[in-house]
Amino acid sequence: METDPVNARILTELQRDATIPLDELGTRVGLSRNACWRRVKQMEDAGIIRGRVALLDPNKIGLGLTVFIQIRTNSHTPDWLERFVKATRELPEILGAYRMTGDLDYLVHARVRDVAAYDALYQRLIRRVDMSDCSASFVMEEIKETTALPV
């Protein structure tokens, strides 16, 4: 599905506030309520809009430490990858896991309460998957983090 300028404006508005009433959304993008609803529905059906969520302040719910975990493995088998995927999807502290190019095999993004909570996450992760090297970097200052994609 093509993202024309009107759809791009709809997506931009929804990324700012997914709770916006259709009447207001239509007004902001220059469409009637029904035309706007049809476009939103089409983008949902096409998978462009994957869901609508509430964004939480991690500090206010006790998850003040952002961690990036760098993982290297000597095993590049389908079985290892399946265990790794399962582990990362089952550990709620892990927000993202990425297979990388270059020297690093995987990068994991996690949110935890503190260093002790990171250590507990680390212990649970290494019990599930073998790694040749695992190191972590703790975020000292969050300069920019957004969920909004440029459309």
UniProtKB/TrEMBL annotation:
Name the domain of life this protein comes from.
Bacteria
User: What GO terms describe the biological role, i.e. biological process, of this protein?
Assistant: regulation of DNA-templated transcription; response to amino acid
Which Gene3D superfamilies does the record cross-reference, listed alphabetically?
A: 3.30.70.920, Winged helix-like DNA-binding domain superfamily/Winged helix DNA-binding domain
Domain HTH asnC-type: from-to ranges: 9-64
Q: What does the UniProt keyword field contain?
A: DNA-binding, Transcription, Transcription regulation
Q: What is this protein called?
A: DNA-binding transcriptional activator DecR
- List GO molecular-function terms, semicolon-separated: sequence-specific DNA binding
An example Pfam family from this entry, by short name, is: AsnC_trans_reg
- Asked if Nucleotide-binding is a keyword of the record, the answer is no
Q: Which organism is it from?
A: Pontivivens insulae
Q: Which cellular component terms (GO) are annotated to the entry?
A: cytosol
